[in-house]
Write a structure and sequence with these properties.
By secondary structure, the protein is of the alpha/beta class. The protein is built from three helices and three strands. Helix content is 43%, strand content 18%. The longest helix is centred in the middle third of the chain and has 13 residues. 9% of the residues are buried.
């Protein structure tokens, strides 16, 4: 069982280069009670994951942040 403090630290990392899609998906996941952090590139994802691994990663199909 996860204690309340640990649950607050867990988050879903949402990766999408399209700001509109990222916003819509973020709002949907928040309605399910998820703590959301967003990133628009693979470099940002690596930075997030080095600091605190997410409980899950939701990503757009295709290459993210290929620039």
């Amino acid at each position: 069982m996860i204690n309340p403090e640990e649950k607050n630290k867990r988050y879903v990392l949402l990766v999408d280069s399209n700001v509109d899609d990222r916003f819509s998906t973020s709002m949907l996941l928040q309605r399910f009670g998820c703590n959301i952090f967003t990133a628009h590139s693979a470099a940002e994802v690596i930075e997030f994951m080095c600091v605190a691994p997410p409980a899950a990663v939701v990503s757009e199909a295709g290459q993210t942040g290929s620039d």
